[in-house]
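Students often ask why we bother encoding 3D structure as a string. The short answer is that it lets us treat folding as translation between two languages. Here is a chain of 209 residues written in the first language.
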Amino acid sequence: MKQNYQLIMQKEIEQTKALPQKPTLLLHACCAPCSSAVLEVLAEHFDLTIFFYNPNISPKSEFDYRLEELHRLLREMNLTEITIISPDYDEREFFNIAKGKEELPEGGARCKDCYLLRLKKTAEYAKNGGFDYFTTTLSVSPYKNAQALNEIGCALSEEYGVKYLISDFKKGDGYKRSCQLSREYNLYRQNYCGCGFSKAQAEERENKK
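And here it is in the second language, the structure alphabet:
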């Protein structure tokens, strides 16, 4: 049964307002454009730390540029109190979970395994760091499956004992707002999710136009 994830998130945020101080939240981020609108929603209510763990992003120069843009976005939005944690880049971590699924279309089993890979690492870091919550910016994209993300996040919440902030950031014009902020801050907007497989599919779509 499909749920209203945005409403669930709003109710959770409302509950945090009664706390004596902002709860801590580890926010997995994939890029600056997706982070922009999410930061607007969350920064007021949580003590945020960004976790830039994306071994799927290829090539390494793309990974570095997206990370650089994320740092610039925080400066532009006057959110310099937010720290970015970026584990060492190791694309083998992604290729290990993508093996045998290279030819699958974007949005299929390979992508869901990639969600799990990145969220599991986020949950582990959140537990070890004593964070109150963890979540991801991924659901702001219309190409990402919010139901799959929330199911994975909730399962990991049970496993690691850290609350997962259920969300669907694309709702309430979240995706539209991310596009507006990208233009406002002149952010680099990539035309593929991150991995080489999604890049090849994006190039194939362009060639067919």
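Translate back mentally: The beta strands are 24-28, 47-51, 83-85, 133-136, 163-164. Keep this in mind for the problem set.
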